[in-house]
Design goal:
single chain; 425 residues; alpha/beta; six-stranded parallel sheet; five-stranded parallel sheet; 13 strands
Length: 425
Amino acid sequence: MFHLRDLRIGIIGLGYVGLPLAVEFGKKYKTIGFDIAPVRVAELMSGKDSTLECENEELLEATLLTYTTSLEGIKGCNFYIVTVPTPIDDNNAPDLTPLEKASQSLGQVISNGDVVVFESTVYPGATEEVCIPIIEKVSGLKFNIDFFAGYSPERINPGDKVNRLTTIVKITSGSTSEIADFVDSVYSSIVTAGTHKASSIKVAEAAKVIENTQRDLNIAIINEFAKIFNRLGIDTEEVLKAAGTKWNFLPFKPGLVGGHCISVDPYYLTYKAKEVGYQPEVILAGRRINDGMGEYVATQMVKKLSSQKIHIDEANILVLGFTFKGDCPDVRNTKIIDIINELKDFNMNVDVYDNWANPEDVHHEYGIQLINTLPKNHYDGIIVAVDHSEFKKMGAETVRKLGKEKHVLYDVKYVFSLNDSDIRL
């Protein structure tokens, strides 16, 4: 096994997860970031990060980091880290295509003695059952004889400037005890918060997939509370604040559950559970509740408009926010689209405003044309769907000026106080 001083690191995938890794490792070791998107590599080479996960100054600090779109460019590395997306398909089944393609690419460049670590979220067993056989087949090398593997799940929280890669405890694992120690030492050299070495790759995979599944379920029960309290005429936020005075009450809020993790990862676990003969019930129940919240929000708006004698047909609705979370440009798997589609089914005219989102990405992925100006006295209904700081600064009074004399303001994210909106989740 080679020493840390001999590390030549190759990062496969330069998105929200891969770039922060590449930057941190690039401060200490020769590191090459690989991505199949020429536009992404070009912007990074120019010193800019459109995901906003890394500041321009941070990119400059990684003096040992270079970028490439060529597999030949990473062929000389000896420690590979895979950070490609692991989405789900239309049937909510794991789509391992990006991971399989990354494994095929690794098979073309990996050499004797090399180590490959996967960070992409998967179900327990995927690394050794899916990825490793592909690498073996393409490379002709034997696992745990000619090359080795590890798994260290990503814990990146897009847009979070406090909990960063280096300040979050890192789970590590390896395919042998010696490799586990080595992988742990590699990550320990950049993660100041420390590491937790799991006993096996499967344990590390399972730990990752239940982290977000647990969070998904916690949000689901709060969403169900909100539905009940709405029928009872009780404000959910007030209830949560009261309950939160108890030391062991968990501080979750209702809302739309989108993004690349919480709304996706549970399906990886339930897929594997079914494969081994267990039918998960609680996890899927939580998913059904959370997946239905966009439709619920739209229905609540329609009911409120109707109660105010505002015509539903061709009503003008403004949706403030499209990204999956506040102060973050990430629109992957945003559930705001569910609100929009449901409102359109009622033959409403829907405008969407979000200065954080990339208009080209939104149009390409969702067919939505974002507006860039906010006309006053125009809307029958306004939905504050994302808690961007911009909307908080605007305040309820300014937002209401966008509406007609008679309109409905729906505050989904508790951006404003109780008395400033007509309806809240």
